[in-house]
Amino acid sequence: QPSLQSPDAAIVHEGATFAQLSRGRTHFKLRGPPDGHLVIFVHGFSGSLRMWDTVAGKLADVGYRTLIFDLYGRGLSDAPAADHTPALFVGQLAELLVSLDLRQTFSLVGLSMGGPIAAAFTHTHPHVVRDLVLVAPAGLPVHVPLAARLARLPVLGDLAMPVIGKSTLNAHLDAAFFDPNAPGSREAIHDAREFGTTLADHHPGYLTALLSTLRHFPLNDMAYIYRDLGQAAAPRTMVMWGEDDKVVPFANAERLMELMPHAQLV
User: Fold this and answer.
1) Can you list the residues of the chain whose pLDDT is less than 50?
2) Of 75, 85, 90, 63, residue with least CA distance to 26
3) 105, 132 Cβ separation under 8 angstroms
4) How many CA atoms lie within 13 A of 160 on its CB side?
5) How far is CA 209 from CA 27, 45, 93, 157, in A?
6) Tens digits of per-residue pLDDT, 15-34?
7) Cis peptide bond upstream of 2, omega within 30
């Protein structure tokens, strides 16, 4: 396997911005006035900065400075041949801040798998995170689909991921929406499927990165990070969770609040 896998040039759109980091290029968007309060968004397991694009853009329009970026192996970012652990992604964000010379304190927002990444970053860099927002964060026990359990197996997972990875991801997209048939939802699901298919076909590191994450990122076992932040009672933390969430169940909110009693659940 190559030490680094990059997306095909054909899917890199004109005007895309990149930072060259130690483990590969990172695709990012930095918007808003330089003196605006900085808000950084971290997306989930198989997503990309597209998940946050609209929200970040609207905040930039009203005076915030916003940073969204593709985690390694997702979107247009390179996929290093490394174990995709929390430490890899925490290091990616830390290097990105240095590369962009962003020295101010900021608000950090993490969705799903981006939640424990944001929490782990806050744990290791508490002096720069002013506020932490966790949106239906992963890191606590959830039901793991059979396909994901099989993917973790040596050899079998490597053989199966190129064959069933794309279709499995597409099949689970509906669960990400409260009402897949609501106005706008079908279009969003269609766009997400198209982009996921594009990545699977034109980013040779995409499915490999997802497989490595399933094997090396403790998606169900990061309570210790939340506990440590809870004991520190800092920074100011908001937890956002939908009661009917079908991907990361709302039942985990109670456990998270036990670990982080200083947080506000909304």
Assistant:
1) none
2) 75
3) no
4) 15
5) 16, 10, 17, 12
6) 999 999 999 999 999 999 99
7) no
What is the distance between the alpha carbons of residues 69 and 147, in angstroms, rounded to a whole number? 28
Give yes or no for a contact between 40 and 109, defined as CB atoms under 8 angstroms apart: yes
- Structure tokens of 223? 């309570």
Q: Which amino acid is at 139?
A: G
pTM surpassing 0.70?
Answer: yes
Residue with tokens 């990122």: 217
Query: Are 13 and 68 a contacting pair, CB within 8 Å?
Result: no
User: Do residues 68 and 110 lie in contact, with contact meaning Cβ atoms separated by under 8 Å?
Assistant: no
Can you tell me the distance from the alpha carbon of 117 to that of 122, in angstroms, rounded to the nearest whole number?
9
96, 19 contact by CB (below 8 A): yes
Cα angle vertex 208, ends 216, 88, to 5°? 45
Contact criterion met (CB below 8 Å) for 120 and 90: yes
Contacts of 126 (CB under 8 A, 6+ apart): 232, 234, 235
